[in-house]
Amino acid sequence: MFKRVLIANRGEIALRIIRACKELGVETVCVYSTADKDAPYLRMADRAICIGPGPARESYLNISRVISAAEIADVDAIHPGYGFLSERPDFSEACRDCKIEFIGPSPEAMGKLGDKVACKNTAKANKVPVFPGSDGAIEDEEEAVAVAIKIGYPVIIKASAGGGGRGMRVCRNEATLRSSIKAAQQEAQAAFGNGAVFIEKFLEHARHVEVQCLGDKHGNAVHLFERDCSMQRRHQKVIEEAPGPSIDRRKLEKVAEGAARLLKASNYAGAATVEFLMDDHQNFYMLEVNTRVQVEHPVTELITGVDIVKMSIVIAAGEPLPFRQKDIAIRGHAMECRINAEDPAQGFRPSPGRITTWEVPGGPGVRMDTHVVPGYSVPPNYDSMIGKLIVHADTREQCLDRMSRALDEFRVDPIKTTIPLHRRLMQNSDFRKGGVDIHYLERLLK
Ligand code: MV4
Predict the structure, then answer these.
(1) Residues with CB under 6 A from ligand 1
(2) Domain limits at 422?
């Protein structure tokens, strides 16, 4: 195992990684920006090193500053968490060049799964279902039109290097498609430095179902079942749950085994999530692969008993996965509400500032992942997520009631949070029935 790990992140995930390291007997080094200098989790690490000012470009996103801190602290490995440098093949490579273990996939595996066209090809070769569409990148207008005639409208143009909804265009007829291709290529080139775009069939109504996977350095790969993340707004997830409500278990298991095969075929070591859309007939279509530990990993931890963050470290240290697929089973139901410092009554306007009252829920089946304490100031520089309330119960209905009860215990003052929205959603009959689609929340908020 590693002697010392640097955490190249902030907030709740930095604290989550500190906790995993402590349980593994690994020393921790946190990097921080001046905007985070008073954050209490920094004192839980063995060492904290300032790497720059508030703007992320000059601190958490700055590869040379992070690597310099790692060299000064003489760490064996770096955990990137999520966001920031976590999905940058150049960062994984910089770590390798400096003989520091990157806790995540190799730059090759990350590059291959991060490029959507390449990823889709590997998926197809491994019998992972994908949307019908172009074979690889589209060269010109005529090729796009030919593919669209074959698969039928509507179609969607996506950037091969895009992700999380960036660089997508829906085309409902030939005229729009013709006028969009060149613009999409130019946009992709400007935004991602890669002009490759592809097209596929556009699905109007769908659920977002993603499969959590783990691969090790010995050729083993397993899945930890699925999460439903359909409750989202502007590509930001709001609630996640596991398992997905009313999903055909046989279909899901086939797809999830495919996801694990995809990791294995990509020589992937670490945690990964394979995202799918699921249509009204429970057909699955792969969207993209996230090559990192995700925000919503706790719901999978609660239903499987697997510590995903600990596993990410164990895998990077070269140990084989300590279990096989047959050892993984689902127990109960789990749900996560993202607590953001935003005002749902004001169009989700950010609400940073000092938190004087912070009373968090507890009791049976309740887990709170947060770096916030009373007196903490939410800096305006970063993502507005300040914590995650996660609950576990035997059934989905008990889980909803437990979440409701936990949300009722929550007291935060004076900043605004998404707690009132969550309380409303826990009583929403469509959500309680299960199976709302990815557009549900935006329709509800109109
Ligand atoms: C799609 C789609 C419909 N059809 N692809 C958005 C984020 C990116 N990961 C892929 N996205 C979509 N791809 C096809 N062929 C609809 C979306 C989409 C979406 C997907 C997941 C969660 C929320 C979403 C919200 C709007 C659109």
Answers:
(1) 131, 156, 164-165, 200-203, 208, 232, 235, 277, 287-288, 438
(2) 207-444
> Among the options 65, 292, 396, 402, which is catalytic?
292
H-helix or E-strand containing 309? Answer: helix 308-316
Q: Do residues 291 and 230 lie in contact, with contact meaning Cβ atoms separated by under 8 Å?
A: no
Which of 119, 229, 235 gets mutated to test ligand 1 (max ligand atoms within 8 A of its CB)? 235
CA dist., res. 181 & res. 158, Å (int): 10
Q: Is 292 a catalytic residue?
A: yes
pLDDT means per 10 residues, the chain with 446 residues, are 98 99 98 98 98 98 98 98 97 98 98 96 98 95 96 97 86 97 93 94 97 98 98 98 98 98 98 98 97 98 98 98 98 98 98 98 98 98 98 98 98 98 98 98 98
Residues 272, 411, single domain; the answer is: yes
pTM: 0.98
Q: What is the CATH number of the domain that holds 185?
A: 3.30.1490.20
Domain containing residue 251: CATH number = 3.30.470.20
Residues 6+ apart with CB under 8 A from 249: none
Report how far ligand 1's centroid is from the alpha carbon of 273 (Å): 15
